[in-house]
Design brief:
Elements (H helix, E strand, L loop, with lengths): L2 H23 L4 H22 L11 H16 L11 H24 L4 H22 L12 H17 L5 H21 L8
Helix pairs in contact: 1-2, 1-3, 1-4, 2-3, 2-4, 2-5, 4-5, 4-6, 4-7, 5-6, 6-7
Amino acid sequence: MEYTTILDIIGTVAFALSGYILASKAKFDILGVIVISLITAFGGGVVRDLLVDKTPFIFKETYPIAVAMTTIFIAYGLKLHHNIKLSNNYIFIISDSIGLSLFAYTGAITALNAEFNFSGILFLSFLTAVGGGIIRDIMMNKVPFVLTNDFYGTVALLIGLAVWLLSLFNFINTYSSLIVLITGTIIRLIAVKNRWKLPKLF
């Protein structure tokens, strides 16, 4: 199994869980919860694959849907949505942060393998990480989270930048990848804790 495939699986679990919690908090029915969870987990990856002229991975393999659905059922069985406030739901915050870092990284690596330039690597890293969340928020009739909150998209761009810099020095390996992923996750968690936001123009 390819390294990026393993990361995709972990990212799928993380984003499916965050989508499940959001949909549950919105009191969606069972179909709504499943749809929102799957969109959150796969939206960015589908867009990523289409942009590099590949068949989206969820249409070629059976494990992605199985992993996401298993995550949803386990989350329901453990009643992980029974937290009073979403802002204090650490399971949501941590899973969303892990998913963000993992998908930003796989997006950057996919762009690198497709021989995208610097801008292309940043763009695909960003879109892979936040694409599912943007589609999810639009479906839930909300302003996309990435446009307003918590330094979110900036983390994806920083991970894309880190991958590009590592590629310049031919230094992409398991250890450097883990450092990038852990650092991205920690930055996101620190941003949430300290309520970091980009400055507004108005």
